[in-house]
Structures
1.
Amino acid sequence: MALGLYSSSLSGIVVLTPPGSVQALPKIIKNANMSTEFHFDQIENQIERIEEDLRKSHNDAAAGGATEKTSQKLHPGDFFITRHSNLSQTHVIFHLISDESSDSPGEITSRHPVILGLRNILKTASRHDISMLTIPALLRHEMSEDMTVPWSIRRAELVFKCAKGFMIESATWGGTEINTLQLLLPHNISEELFTTLAGMVSNVFRVANPKFLCFD
């Protein structure tokens, strides 16, 4: 993937991250450190720099008497970016903050902060030559007992339709067109639900051969 850094066709992935301090999932840190990173700082150093920038922004706002409160904490819909040349499938990771409980999935709307955060990610990707983006189709990385088939269908339909709308809207933003959107599903999804969601992709996006990925 390192050679792809010098092209105008970069790839990115959206990974859900808990709210609070700037942190990456342990599995991502482990994978990023399995080989040498020659082009960018190691992921821990990138995260440390983001934390420093966040503290500086907070302190500057406080010193300037800003009327709006700023926080050093990340909230749902916020995201931060790490860059990589040594991962096999992506150059950029968008760490999207989500506070949804893993064992108690709720209902969300198109105005939910995480959905709006996804829109901002697509906008950022379009402006920085990222033409292929992978997103979690259910805004979850693992299935739980509470994620029933009807709930999963409703959630997928919302994410698919919002993503399609954002991609259409991106034509007015300028920058690179996102011509490949990959949909990531939990690895423990049932075959029945997988088939149902694959059919939904064809209907929503009007494509003949949709591609799903499973998060492991």
Note: The helical segments are 26-32, 43-63, 113-127, 149-169, 191-205.
2.
Amino acid sequence: MTYSDCCDMFMRASITGTQCLLLDDGLGGVEEYAEDFRWHDRYTTSPTKRIVRVEVVAEKILRDLLRGHEEYAASEQLELVLSAFLDIFERTLAESAAANEVVGFKSVACYRTGLDVEPPSESAEAVLASLKDVAQDFKLTGKIRLAHKALNDLVVCKTLEIAAAQDKPIQFHTGLGDNDITLTKASPSHLQKVIKRYPETKFVLLHSSYPYTRDAGYLSAVYPNVYLDFGEVFPFVSGAGQRSIVQQMLEICPTSKILWSTDGHWWPESFYLGVVQSRQALYDVTTCFLALGALTLPSGFSGLYHA
């Protein structure tokens, strides 16, 4: 069976009911090992859309600015580099937001320096120190990985400003990941400061924020600009765990603030499993709630109908 056959079997709209795909094409290895996002249109009834991973955009800009100028690592020109970086970064994100194929932004700050994002201060000293570290790393390794807190936080906050101005949501990886994450900094509760600071920006908390699902549900309930996406736990968490996550989500999160994704990537089966298992978990939990009288027929079944 070819890869195309697998895609046809597990991703076809007639099988999964998927109308369109929203793809984060900033995942490492996409250019080498994955198809262009438009290629996926053949499996859906509507065009595939992009989600722009902002750390990847920032890293590319810094790489272009520093390439051939390794002396900047020990230079007074870092302020000029920072100014140029911010100008290009803001312009690039604004242009991306205006593109018809882009539906939003995504940050993986959770993986890099944690979700305890601090709003920018008037002093650029910490950011310049971070930029110096980036330049030194690039000089030594030829690679750039944005994992320096002051600079990371600045990138996130600039994105939050642009997302609000362009009326685009921003997704945040929260909770569930791998051993590259500091779990104590993966709770979406750490985002509360910037959620309040940027009330016009739509925050989407990804991956059910597991194991911090209740934290995400709470934030979605008390802040009008916060939404909870209960993806990735299918199939990473056991069936019982999946049902528990859906139950925790429904404890407080308004049903109008609940989103869903498969987190499918690399393997076509991941899209299919995400669809099947999430529907099963939703069915199991909502039918139980209906039997208990905790949900009424309209609210209980509208989510299932659109799933």
Note: Strands lie at 22-24, 49-53, 102-107, 170-172, 203-205, 226-229, 258-259.
3.
Amino acid sequence: MIKQVFKSFPDNKPISGLCIVEDITKCPTGYNPISKTHDQDSDADLHMQSWKESVFIGRKISRYLCLSKTEGISDYIVVNINIINEKECPPDGYCLIPRTIDSDQKAWRKRQLCYKLTRKSQATFAITDIILLSRSKKAPDGFNLVGDLNGLTLCYKTSPQTPDNVPLPSLNYGLTPTPSTEHIPKSNGSLSSLPSLESSANALSHDYDRLMSLKPTRPAPKLPPTYSSSNYSTLNSYQGLEGIPFVLNQNISMENKSIFKDIPEIKIKTAEDLDLEYNYSFEQERQV
């Protein structure tokens, strides 16, 4: 019930794609066919096949207009529709639908439909609905009349869009602060004045002057001797080890034999000694 109520509401999303199918049951995914006329609820076939053609061909040839609001060229929407003759060239910027999307047959018989696409971010309006009329030659309220399309009257509905490149409205006030005194209420209800921007700027200037007048109380330490890492360098480089004597620690000198007393004596073993000491037959593992 809720879905039916939502379907009855007008959909103001812009149409993004149009196509023609021969078999209405083979409408592409994401497209909706216009199968009935808006005024008479009759068949919305755009081919206008006569009974003589049906007898000669042996089958009924039909053409149905399908529209989509999700498929088509990304970020482009339909903003205008026009009807031209079969051999007439479309206006600049308009697209044709030359063949059916399901059977790859010629789409139109006498008059053909062309439409114009515009990038969604630049469109100020878009076509949101298309209807076909079988008897009436006047567009219903809210629709624009396009013209006769092979015996049916084509109408479309537009809706305003908000392009991304619309300039923002100008402000009636400036953004530059003016030196003034603001008043805020205290907790007891009385007003107190805040210092103005000019006085705050003067206070910051005085603080900066005091910082610049500060001088160190002791002289800076002398730099260590310079060592250049390359004969071609033009700037002195420091490695962080300047001034540290490169001597061996006395605890690990060869003369101090007390550190070697805990080291066990290494005995030389032959291959036979190693086999006898580490040989293992794995008999218990094989018995399991």
Note: The CA atoms of residues 33 and 66 lie 4 Å apart.
4.
Amino acid sequence: MTGGDWCHLIGVAAALGARVQFIGGEPTLHPDFARILAHTVELGVPVEVFTNLYRIRESWWELLARPGVSLATSWYSDQADDHARITGRAGSYERTRANVAKAVGLGIPVRAAIVGVLDGQRVREAEADLRSLGVTRVRVGHVQDLGRAQIGSRPDPAQLCGRCGDRRLAVSPTGDVTPCVMSGWMVAGNVLVEPLTVIVGGAAWRDHLVQIPRQGRVCPPECNPASDGNDCPPAQQVDGE
């Protein structure tokens, strides 16, 4: 998806009265990230940027501080070595922490998800570290494999929270439309081929939705899709780094 493709799609979302979330992978790596975000802000669409906060250009801060923009990030430890071990990047703890502190200082709403990956991981200490920076919206979760098909098997829709496709959807970097970021194997169409409104009104979309249990699934406390804007917990995907 080019910058123009995303801007057009966000225009469609604006006409529908939607709010959007930029997620990945890492959304700030898109070459037109600033252009897409500026277009979203100009349209008055509320937007959350889910980013690892590793590489934030100085020129972006003014845009990120605009009304209607918020940030979300994944967090792993209060120890730099453990944080780097999980993200695979030396210095990721220091850079992400510094950018969290800067965002809070600029008054940008920030939420964080602490993802449990390692045995003995300092999850509670990591939470205290974040709160010491002024982050008040912190959720603790654990890594899961939803959205990433296992070799020789197919993900189980029963593991989804049950809210996928319920006034929400996800569009991948290639334009594929799925019920949410956690149901990446349920492709209903592609916005580069046909309009979004046609896709969500089509048979493939309906077929996917009937596979997702809507009742009887009680999410564990760390999932809690009813919090943080009723969105699924993308922070539970470690490869968001």
Note: The chain has eight helices and eight strands.
